Amino acid sequence: MPARELIYGRNPVREAQRGRRRVHRVWTSEDTGTDELARLAGSPDHQGIVAEVDPYPYADPGRLLAADGSFVVALDQVQDPRNLGAICRTAEAAGAAGAVICERRAAAVTAAACKASAGAVEHLPVARVRNLTDWITTAKEAGAWVYGADGGSPTSFRTLDFEGRVVIVLGSEGEGLRPRVAGACDELVRIPAVGMVGSLNVSAAAAVLLFAVAEAHSEAD
To answer: Cα separation of 79 and 105, whole Å?
Structure first.
């Protein structure tokens, strides 16, 4: 039997209770000391609640784009679980069909990611793939248009219509997209910036692009 996991925080525990995995036990500050909750959570950010749950149920990456007009966010070795969680929260709010993450050199759906997502990972399908380039190729064969975020691209995301099945690919913190992943995309796009800081972090960039796709799909309906 797979080992159970511990998650923490009010929203993550509440959404786990509403989501796809079984919650086996809950500790709260009413019956357990704060220090013990912090020990169980491995973090002081438990908000007075910790839960023991089944392992995270990763989705089938081949099914995320099954529906017409579905869109997905794919992350190329994003390593900070807080960024992963924030992106999943945005993706779920925007109506994305799911998220794809790398099996290696990348953050997984841990308790920290759950907390950063405010429990959104309990509802958003998240799939892990061994080779992101191969998955992108499969997505294109399924009729998806794949756009990679690249601050150096001459193409603004505002010039695109984002029709049909869409995949938005974002690179890792500091490194961006790996060359092979970038090369597999149909087009690289940038988010124009006018301020002194030249680029957004990966979770902020995800929010801009995913809601642009969501708006385009809403207008098309």
So the answer is: 7
Angle between helices 81-94 and 202-220 (to 10 degrees): 10
Dump pLDDT digits (tens) for 201-218: 999 999 999 999 999 998
Question: Are 169 and 149 within 8 A, CB to CB?
Answer: yes
Confirm if 191 and 151 have CB atoms less than 8 A apart: yes
Pairing of strands 98-102, 187-189: unpaired
Domains in the chain: boundaries:
5-53, 61-220
* Residue pLDDT, tens place only, 89-144: 999 999 999 999 999 999 999 999 999 999 999 999 999 999 999 999 999 999 99
The span from the CA of 81 to the CA of 117, in Å, is 9
- Read off the tokens for 51: 């839960």
CATH classification (class only), 61-220: alpha beta
Predicted confidence (pLDDT) per residue in 49-96, tens digit:
999 999 999 999 999 999 999 999 999 999 999 999 999 999 999 999
